[in-house]
Design the sequence.
């Protein structure tokens, strides 16, 4: 019976291919949605992850960079810098705001750096140079590509104009392209003289990040101290949590669509082979075997669709940013495996109506002409 | 031909129902995706219009309301109120905070208001009556199981939930507090030592006298108070939507395109399978002398009929999905019944039906009339 199921399925290759492509499309939608959120979330933490100081010091009550604001007095930096465990303290000012570049408006993370400071600046340049003075900015190379703004051009943050002097690599995401300006410029914009947003603190050799964090907490009041791993985990978690409901709903919607396609394909196959199935029934074929053959067909169709989606996800999705550079896409193997379980479930649900048709099939149909 | 196509669809009702459901599901997915994007724009517009101002004053150079930091000097209010035609300039401050409870984090856009600009409607609760009261969006209430009188902690300061509203935009639920609440928050919480850096006044919601000309007053304020920009709510909303488009368009455009490709595949598959199962009927028609164009018309007619069945079903499914998504995650608005979204889907659906009908035409063309005389 299973051999029959296999053969009859492959005798209608067009239906098989069409169904598999339809199911693959539904799964691709889910994987794509997930890749967008995961890619954006990973890119959102690109800045803290690349800076990777031993600890980050921020305003008490703040535990993120993404969508957060933090202000601490400058004297707190001096106190921390004087601690024996501390090798170096690098202050930054930071705010998330809308920037304007050649008529395009984007939400961006703006980082203010002390003049000549490279520790907290772009980690890789693709063109131009780093900022050296007031009124200069380094923008992501991708931002330059999609807006057309290049080195020497002007961009605007609130009411301040900046001249682009360099393009950085690895600093773009749709949610937060990272723009570097001087700390003085950003202090002007924020009216935040005498304060910093975050302190990147590097420990002396032999001092662990945890020891350093505890030392700072003991020494400086009303600040929050996190290791890079903790800050990155907080931001990544926040970004993923923002998309978790919509990803779940998309999975449900597209799985239902896939189940319908599976159901339709299996039903079409059963409907076309009614007479053959009636003969099997007339010859004493067991109901279990008949239903099993329908489920097998549904599973094959669903798994083929799933495999096509996996191939697409692994080979095509990572290439999409070449065409649409503003997208950061990351395909997760864990999500792909989860989707495999969904595909099996979809196959079983999709087989319900065709299986009931098989069970209701009258063996007398075999004798009709 | 339409009559014949209709008869054929009625012949196997289960198949027709499944076919219509499959196509309807594709329509629903497209409507939901398209509606999701439009919904984000509508939310951005809504949160600005809900402030009920005739004009909105921002820091010079700031052209947006959501996701933008605007900081106005305290004396600006007096200067704006001195302009002829201005009845009142109601203060509003925006504080983006991250709410943390039970290990879950949510960015919240807190709007501080005084006499205008508070929550447009309350789903529950009396609203703000004292300093520690806060009105939160239903997303927060649902996600954290918060109800009337519950504690809502921001930077170690305890607010008390005094109302539930439905205002969210750009993935962020909104919350509303009074200026008393903001001052208490600044003074009692950990923020206090660094208070000077916080924008104490972000926007002014301008109320005009009935006889004032909005454009004239807008220009007058900008001339008299150079440190501000002035927008109508529609202008400000257009800027926010513009900013959101640069964020959503590449992502949603690609997703909707993938959904349309799937739609084409499903419709093509459905029609192909259907035509294959009725090759004998086509053979009979050929044997009876029907020309190829008649058969093509029959296939296209059937495809269009299927689509006409599927479209209302798809709209219904989309509505059910929208209701489900919005009840699970009210931070998202899905605007499926927008004329633009609906018309686009309707027209594209009909085009899809015709294109889908082309897939099985080869089988129809190759049908041998002799099949009509073979046993079933």
Sequence:
């Amino acid at each position: 019976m299973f051999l029959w199921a296999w053969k009859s399925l492959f005798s209608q290759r067009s239906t098989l291919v069409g169904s598999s492509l339809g199911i693959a499309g539904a799964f691709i939608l889910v994987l794509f949605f997930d890749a967008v959120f995961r890619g954006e979330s990973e890119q959102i933490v690109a800045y803290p992850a690349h800076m990777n100081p031993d600890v980050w010091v921020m305003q008490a009550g703040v535990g993120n960079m993404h969508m957060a604001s933090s202000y601490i007095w400058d004297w707190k930096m001096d106190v921390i810098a004087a601690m024996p465990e501390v090798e170096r303290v690098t202050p930054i000012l930071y705010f998330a705001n809308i920037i304007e570049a050649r008529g395009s408006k984007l939400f961006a993370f703006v980082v203010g750096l002390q003049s000549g400071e490279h520790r907290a600046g772009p980690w890789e340049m693709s063109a131009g140079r780093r900022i050296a003075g007031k009124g200069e900015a380094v923008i992501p190379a991708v931002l330059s590509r999609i807006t057309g703004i290049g080195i020497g051009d002007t961009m605007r943050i609130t009411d301040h104009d900046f001249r682009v002097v360099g393009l950085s690599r690895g600093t773009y995401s749709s949610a937060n392209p990272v723009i570097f300006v001087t700390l003085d410029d950003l202090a002007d914009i924020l009216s935040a003289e005498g304060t910093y947003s975050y302190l990147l603190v590097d420990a002396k050799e032999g001092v662990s990040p945890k020891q350093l964090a505890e030392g700072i907490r003991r020494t400086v009041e009303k600040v929050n101290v996190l290791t890079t791993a903790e800050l990155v985990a907080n931001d990544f978690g926040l970004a993923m949590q923002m998309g978790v409901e919509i990803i779940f709903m998309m999975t449900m919607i597209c799985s239902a669509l896939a189940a319908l396609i599976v159901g339709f394909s299996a039903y079409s196959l059963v409907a076309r082979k009614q007479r053959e199935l009636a003969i099997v029934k007339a010859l004493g074929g067991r109901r279990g075997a008949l239903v099993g053959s329908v489920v097998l067909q549904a599973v094959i169709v669903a798994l083929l669709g799933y495999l096509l989606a996996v191939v697409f996800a692994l080979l095509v999705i990572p290439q999409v940013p070449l065409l649409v550079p503003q997208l950061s896409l990351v395909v997760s193997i864990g999500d792909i495996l989860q989707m495999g379980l969904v595909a099996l479930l979809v196959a079983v649900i999709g087989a319900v109506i065709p299986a009931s048709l098989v069970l209701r099939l009258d063996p007398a149909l075999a004798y009709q002409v | 031909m339409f009559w014949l196509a209709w008869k054929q669809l009625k012949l196997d009702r289960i198949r027709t129902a499944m076919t219509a459901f499959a196509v309807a599901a594709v329509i629903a997915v497209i409507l939901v995706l398209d509606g999701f994007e439009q919904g984000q724009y509508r939310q951005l517009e809504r949160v600005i219009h809900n402030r009920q101002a005739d004009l909105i004053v921002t820091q010079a150079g700031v052209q947006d309301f959501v996701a933008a930091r605007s900081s106005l000097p305290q004396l600006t209010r007096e200067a704006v109120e001195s302009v002829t035609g201005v009845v009142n300039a109601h203060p509003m401050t925006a504080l983006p905070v991250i709410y943390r409870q039970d290990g879950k984090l949510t960015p919240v856009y807190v709007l501080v208001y005084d006499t205008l600009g508070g929550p447009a409607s309350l789903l529950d609760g009396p609203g703000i009556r004292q300093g520690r009261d806060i009105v939160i969006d239903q997303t927060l209430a649902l996600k954290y199981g918060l109800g009337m009188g519950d504690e809502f902690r921001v930077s170690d300061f305890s607010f008390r939930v005094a109302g539930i509203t439905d205002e969210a935009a750009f993935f962020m639920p909104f919350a509303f507090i009074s200026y008393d609440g903001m001052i208490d928050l600044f003074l009692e919480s950990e923020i206090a030592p660094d208070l000077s850096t916080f924008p104490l006044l972000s926007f002014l919601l301008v109320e005009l006298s009935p006889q004032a000309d909005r454009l004239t007053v807008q220009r007058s304020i900008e001339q008299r108070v150079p440190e501000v920009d002035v927008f109508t709510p529609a202008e400000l909303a257009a800027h926010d939507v513009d900013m959101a488009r640069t964020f959503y368009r590449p992502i949603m455009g690609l997703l909707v395109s993938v959904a349309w490709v799937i739609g084409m595949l499903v419709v093509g598959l459905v029609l192909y399978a259907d035509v294959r199962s009725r090759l004998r009927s086509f053979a009979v028609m050929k044997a009876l002398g029907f020309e190829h164009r008649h058969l093509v018309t029959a296939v296209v007619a059937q495809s269009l009929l299927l689509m006409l069945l599927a479209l209302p079903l798809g709209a219904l499914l989309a509505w059910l999905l929208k209701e489900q998504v919005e009840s699970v995650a009210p931070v998202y608005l899905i605007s499926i019944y927008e004329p633009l979204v609906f018309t686009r889907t309707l027209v594209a659906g009909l085009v899809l039906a015709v294109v889908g009908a082309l897939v099985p035409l080869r089988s129809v063309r190759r049908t041998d009339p002799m099949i009509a005389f073979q046993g079933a």
